[in-house]
Each structure stands twice: as structure tokens, then as C-alpha cells.
Automatic annotation (TrEMBL):
Its EC number is 2.6.1.42. This is Branched-chain-amino-acid aminotransferase. InterPro entries: Aminotrans_IV, Aminotrans_IV_CS, Aminotransferase-like, B_amino_transI, BCAT-like_C, BCAT-like_N, BCAT_family, Class-IV_PLP-Dep_Aminotrnsfr. Pathway: Amino-acid biosynthesis; L-valine biosynthesis; L-valine from pyruvate: step 4/4; Amino-acid biosynthesis; L-leucine biosynthesis; L-leucine from 3-methyl-2-oxobutanoate: step 4/4; Amino-acid biosynthesis; L-isoleucine biosynthesis; L-isoleucine from 2-oxobutanoate: step 4/4. The gene is ilvE. Its cofactor is pyridoxal 5'-phosphate. One of its GO terms (molecular function) is L-valine-2-oxoglutarate transaminase activity. The keyword Transferase applies. Belongs to the class-IV pyridoxal-phosphate-dependent aminotransferase family.
Amino acid sequence: FDQLDGFIWMNGEFVNWAEAKIHVLTHGLHYASAVFEGERAYGGEIFKLTEHSERLHESARIMGFSIPYSVAEIDDACRKLLKMQGFRDAYVRPIAWRGSDSLGVSAPNNRINCAIAIWQWPSYFSPEQKLKGIRLDLAEYRRPDPRTAPSHAKASGLYMICTISKHAAEAKGYSDAMMLDWRGQVAEATGANIFFAKEGRLHTPKADCFLNGITRKTVIELARARGIEVAERAIMPEELDSFEECFLTGSAAEVTPVAEIGPHRFQPGAMCKSMLEDYAAAVQPKHAVAAE
Ligand code: PMP
């Protein structure tokens, strides 16, 4: 993956993909002092680009550092890089991290670096998997208490338990894992938020200890625009059998129906279909973007 053609934007410059390197003594590598974003471009335009760039800044603020490029500069670099890469539909990954100037835990003066990579990353799940609904394991780890970790930042350190949980699920033949929060309430998947449907209404956990996804917020708006009630509330795992449908939301996952969570079964139906269709329509560029 580090040897592809094309360019990566790094600290204000476009560098060849294979040359976008960092030193092994990078603070971000040792202590996870890094924050990132995940975005998708559709038809040549990045969906909710500015919201993502703002969240990158906010994540950095929560982590106690400041990215030396404004939201507008990051937006501009993402747009330019998308054109240079020549993609209309692609995945966009900005990241910011503390550099290698010193390696103590305390490194307030280390340079803050910022990079953006764009590549073609089709849906996490194949179209067949999506329509049938994916299978989720129950993760062993729980989302941390907000007093234990900066749970509202899209911070690299929070993904340690996600990778462990996703690997464990995949080793058992599942696509992903559903994580509970520290209280034992349903939280989210390892890289996507979760929704349930029952009697024409949507239910989703209150985002009080995990990322309040941009896709989650979009889907809530789309559902309410259709007149569908959305309850943001505590959901206990004991309730899972009472729901008819379930789906995940995320910039990468988009809207992905779920058929199983451990022993619980769901039947992707009208609600999954409506939200899939509404989201697919919402992400299309609002005005035609010229192909180059
Ligand atoms: N939770 C986690 C842990 C994630 O990694 C993501 C993906 N960024 C989400 C939720 C969904 O967020 P968004 O809709 O903003 O992509």
C-alpha cells in the first residue's frame, strides 16, 4: 500500500505516494498522538468535506494540539488532491500527528504534521453482503467511559480496541463486531454507528461516549425528512431481539444492513432499503462536477 502511484499531500506539498514517509521515532506512532478523518468522494465531490475538516480540527483540539493548516486549507488540499489523483469516487484520509522532534510522553513542541491520502476504496462490504445483511460478532472490549479516554475525538488511540475486536470477529467468520459501552449499553461497530428499526421507527444509541458520526447525523435527518421518528436513547443488549431491522452507518460503511449480531437475527427490509436509497441520493453532488 505504500508503493502506489500518485500523490500524497504532506505538510503543504504534494509528494510522490511512495515518498510520503515519517521517522520511526514519531511521537504519534509511539503514543497515538494522532487524529484522522475518513471521507468519501462521489462524482468528483467530497461529501460533507468541510464538516470532516472541522472535525479533524476539533479532534486535534481535544488531543491538545493545533493543526497548522486551516479548515479552508485542508478542504482545498483535499479537492486539489482528488483532481490530481484523477478519481471521481474515492476514499479520503486526512491525518495529523505529533512529529519526531522528541520522544518523551511530554512533547508539546513537536511539530504537528498533516497529510492527506486519496485512493479508490470500494464499499467495505460487497453489494451481495450488503443486501443480505452482514454478520456482527459481539466484541469483547467496550467503548471507554468519556472520563477514561477522549471518546468524542476521532483519535488513533481509540482504534486499538477496534482493530483487536474486528480481527477477533473476522477470525470467527463475522464481518465486524458490535461494541457495548462501559455501562453495558449498545454503542457502535468498530468503525460505524448502529441503528435499529421496530414498527416503522428508528432507534439508535445516544452518542454520549463514541463518535457522533457525520453519516449518523445525515441518516437521522433523512429519516426525519421522511416523517420517520428517530429515538436517540440507551439501548440494552437484552432488547436486541425486539428489533426487526438493523444497519450500520459510516462514511466508509455508508448504510450497511445487518442480519445478525451474535445470536440475534434481523431481516433487512423496507427501512434498510429506504435509508440506503436516501443516503445514496444525498451523497450525489448538488451540482454537476466537470470530469477532467
Ligand atoms: N464510529 C467509529 C468508531 C468510526 O470509526 C466511524 C467512522 N469515522 C464512525 C463511527 C462513523 O462516523 P462517520 O459517519 O462520521 O464516518
